[in-house]
Amino acid sequence: MAETALVWLVDDDRAVRFVLAAALRDAGLRVAEFEEAESVLALIEQHVPDLLFTDVRMSGQGGLKLLERLHAHYAQLPVIVMSAYTDVATTAAAYKHGAFDYLPKPFDLDQAVAAAQRALAQRRSQAAPPAAPSRPGPRETELIGRSAAMREVFRAIGRVAASGLNVLITGETGTGKELVARALHTHSARALRSVVALNTAAIPSELLESELFGHEMGAFTGATRRHAGRFEQADGGTLFLDEIGDMPLLLQTRLLRVLAEGEFYRVGGRELIRADVRVIAATHQDLEAKVARGEFRADLMHRLDVVRIHLPSLRERREDIGLLAEHFLARAAEELKVGAKRWSAKALAAVERFDWPGNVRQLENLCRRLAVMAPGREVRVEDLPFQRETAVPAEPGWGEGLRRWAERELAAGRSDLHAAAVAELERVLFEAALAAHDGHRQHAAEALGLGRNTLTRKLGSSRRRRE
Ligand SMILES: Nc1ncnc2c1ncn2[C@@H]1O[C@H](COP(=O)(O)OP(=O)(O)OP(=O)(O)O)[C@@H](O)[C@H]1O
Fold first, then answer.
1. Kind and range of the H or E element at 7?
2. Hey, is 297 helix, strand or coil?
3. Is the overall model pTM greater than 0.80, yes or no?
4. Residues with CB under 6 A from ligand 1
5. What is the ipTM, given to two decimal places?
6. Among 196, 260, 268, 442, whose Cα sits 20 to 30 Å from the Cα of 149?
7. Do domains 6-126 and 148-310 have the same CATH topology?
8. What pLDDT, in 10s, does the model give residues 108-160?
9. Which fold has domain 318-466?
10. Residue pair 240/181 in contact by the 8 Å Cβ criterion
């Protein structure tokens, strides 16, 4: 169950949002991004994050005004103000309105992460955790793909969208399950009403029930006003329950009852609420296996699984990779307002060969990184994190390759073999783990069974060795 702190980031400069969000995620935090203050004020009524970063000068309402309003209504929420304006008036105004910290732009990313950690530590020492939202404000994106497998998915969406039946979407992480859920909604008779999303894994279990069904004022400590749950919000529309496999058993029972009866009480409430909701659920887990282990209710699975749409992993439809890579690279340049780049033939071929454990999301993130970081207008194979020549041959039979390499080098009279081989082994492992985890150091370190600090230290020394 994710209990990671949630940071909201408000800045109208996409490039700043991009680098800062990446650094904060790298530090193990969850980040939601906002372009302007207005959407923050609209959403915060439902969820208060653990920390908020804001720029000062933005279109619409400025950061200081936002800070003032947040401080008045959510005094517990630490706010870090960032600005290129380091004049005394701005800095002083920020602190006067209750800023936790002030970062003059351009700032060092480590400094920003350190400020975030200080703010969160202070908040933890004084407050109970707030509700965590699912991803706010997702935009409607078109599903791309021309592989036979994706055409089959499109056909399934077309067939079942209008039927109003519950749908269970399965597939590995990042394969586009949420996108399919939104497409099902858009092409249904419910399209004029909202699609409301809830990520079961992102919300602490004790808050999940009130997130789903709402609560009355005073239902529990911190329930300072009545709150409509996602079921009520989705009335007449669609409720998208992501990561349904992570739903606690008790809540599964409650959900099943609500689905069967179409009515429920808010937490702490006496008024029976009716909501006409189509449920689309998604999971990357094997639900049948969870049922067999007694972790998921079979009757709930059957109720959700009226129609099943399975999304193939990216490596099962390699013919879509090029198309997606072109699309994402162009879109990233546009979004991040950097010059357009194109793929070199070699780089594109390497991208098509790669296995993409994080699927489309990983490819999309790589394109964003390349749009900003790759030097030159053409993305070369050397710019890819997983494509440098290795001195020690890896699969197949990499032990054999290593032996041949060692024998050859020994015959040539080389004397530092151990250090060279270990350095190479680590470089390959780190690059593979970072690529598999979208460059997220903490996750990569976990996957390798290392601490994050060890990975960072080793990455630093392997970089120094190469320079
Ligand atoms: N076929 C596609 N065409 C265009 N974009 C796609 C496609 N599939 C996925 N994406 C993009 O990839 C990212 C991940 O997709 P999405 O969030 O729908 O995946 P998911 O399967 O729900 O992931 P998770 O299981 O981790 O929640 C999104 O930014 C989405 O827009």
1. strand 6-10
2. coil
3. no
4. 141, 143-145, 171, 173-179, 242, 282, 284, 360-361, 364
5. 0.98
6. 196
7. yes
8. 888 899 999 989 988 776 643 333 333 333 345 788 988 999 988 888 888 88
9. Helicase, Ruva Protein; domain 3 (1.10.8)
10. yes
